[in-house]
């Protein structure tokens, strides 16, 4: 599994969602479509997208060390898709 990151230096405002929400939604949809295409082509390669803010960095690093990135979802990402 390949992991793509969108790190932020500070937490973006999620109260109104706006552009950040649209980007998150589009990225989730894009990678779901890409993974479906790769599966249909017989490829074992898969991609996962992560939105990260500084509050998520330690938890992300911990999940990466423990091999648990496939089930990891940052607080920022969860807030944006809620």
Structure, described:
The protein has one domain. Helices cover 48% and strands 15% of the residues. The protein is built from three helices and two strands; from the N terminus they run βαβαα. A two-stranded parallel ribbon has the order 1-2. The two termini are 25 Å apart.
Strand content range: 5-15%
Can you tell me the overall shape?
flat
Q: SSE order, as H and E?
A: EHEHH
* Biggest sheet overview: 2 strands, parallel
Compute the CA-based radius of gyration: 13 Å
Strand order in space, largest sheet: 1-2
Number of helices: 3
Please tell me the total number of domains: 1
Q: Give the fraction of residues assigned to helices.
A: 40-55%
Model regions low in confidence, pLDDT < 50 over at least 5 residues: none
- The count of β-strands is 2
Through-space gap between termini: 25 Å
Oligomer: single chain
